From TrEMBL:
Belongs to the universal ribosomal protein uL23 family. One of the early assembly proteins it binds 23S rRNA. One of the proteins that surrounds the polypeptide exit tunnel on the outside of the ribosome. Forms the main docking site for trigger factor binding to the ribosome. The keyword RNA-binding applies. The gene is rplW. GO terms for biological process: translation. This is Large ribosomal subunit protein uL23. Keywords: Ribonucleoprotein, Ribosomal protein, RNA-binding, rRNA-binding. GO terms for molecular function: rRNA binding; structural constituent of ribosome.
Amino acid sequence: MAHITDVLRKPVLTEKTMKLMQEENKYTFDVALSSNKTEIKQAVEAMFNVKVTSVNTINVRAKTKRVGRYVGKTARRKKAIVTLAEGNSINLFGEEE
């Protein structure tokens, strides 16, 4: 297995992912393009000391963007939606519970 920080890049914090965290106990992360579901599960369990029940992955294609006359593309990425077991949670904001 690759190192934990090589697999998990950063959490995705949007309105939609915040709703998933609160209502369905699902957490979303940007992960390495080469990582698979098993590596993602092991990395989340090791980093946050929680029990993962399932992992869903999404490959996000690059989008074409324009700034004036210049055309470029955004970076492609891979997202993982991790479902935790009942009673487990991840504190992404560093607050005391």
